[in-house]
Design brief:
about 10% strand, single chain, mainly alpha, two-stranded parallel sheet, about 50% helix
Length: about 80
């Protein structure tokens, strides 16, 4: 549901969008960016895994390197 709403809002405005709700890993973070988020907020996952932010950052960096993505703007809003 959150991804659908982010996509709808991103298509209707040029304002920055903070994606939140259910981001537990780097894959979720990438999905939120692809839906149109300019930033993400990670909440509950921090209580489950205090290192989650480091893992998300490292996972996103690895994904971008493997996919030859130089900037998140290249994938923002593509879904």
């Amino acid at each position: 549901v959150a991804l659908k709403l982010i996509r709808q809002v991103a298509q209707s405005t040029k304002l920055p969008i903070i994606g939140m709700g259910g981001i537990m890993n780097w894959q979720d973070a990438i999905e939120f960016v692809m839906a149109g988020s300019t930033a993400i907020q990670v909440g509950t996952a921090n209580f489950i895994n205090p290192r989650v932010m480091i893992e998300i950052i490292e996972g996103m960096e690895k994904f971008c390197k493997e996919q030859n993505i130089k900037n998140l703007e290249e994938i923002r809003g593509i879904i």
